[in-house]
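Hey, I'm writing a tutorial for new members on how sequence and structure tokens pair up, and I'd like a real worked example in the thread rather than a made-up one. If someone can provide the structure for the chain below, I'll link this post from the tutorial.
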Amino acid sequence: MLALGLLIVAGLPGSARAENDSQAGLLGPREVAVGEAMRGGATGASAIGLNPAGLPLNRELVFEGGYGYRGSDSASILGVSACDSTNVAPGCFFYDYVGASPEIDGMSGKRSTHVGGLALSRLVVPRVLIGATAKYYRFKSDMMGDTAASGFVFDLGATLRLTSLINLGVAAQNLWATEESPQFPRAVGGGFQARPIPILALGFDMRWLLDGDDQSARFGGGGELFLRSGSSLGFPIRAGGLHDNGTDATYVSGGLGLAAARWGLDLAARRQVAGGRETMVIASMRFFGPRMASPALGIE
């Protein structure tokens, strides 16, 4: 899910290739800041784009939405979501829109993509969580070589809580489709998240594209340090790195946040240090309803 506030991309015209598939477009600032390494611990809107099985890892009602801009193809981006993990069947509703005006080989045109859907998850036993996402998309373009398409695509995910400190996650995006589209390629990813101390989370992820000639891998890692000021405010500090061997691109990333009882603000930046000069800055805003204690493992 986008869950973005502001998105600015500056760099070489071809450097945004890694952002053109739907997997990268569904990520928000928290995921970007830690090198996309959250499949083992994705919650809220982060679970929509990475692993729907992570929704029961916390218990909260959260609304998230925003607007973004991507300079590489003059794309305007809008996304909203509502996620509720306080009930027995945690789920999210979401909607995303991207309208772009790319220029390729001296020719310009327009593309638009609408994506909406529902993510659901279930705590099967205290250590095993499963989830699924159903998305409806509609893609239109007047660019040469593009083909308009619309249909449903489905994601699956699972999370294993090895201990109270370590989670493993695996997810497949666009695994089944009623109509195939290169904008929604099949992909599978996995990773882990560890929390050696309560204020520090570390993760590492990999993702593979399964369709087309470019069956590339994308892997990254990062961490979050969560500092508190009294009992009312928290300050997450995030950093990470990412490499895509399909484009031979390497990125470094970082982010800051401000978390209160009823709202949260997140900022992130990512800089391409090899294979191009892309720079991305992202912001998101969240509003919380009821929040409860996270579920226990039950067996230690």
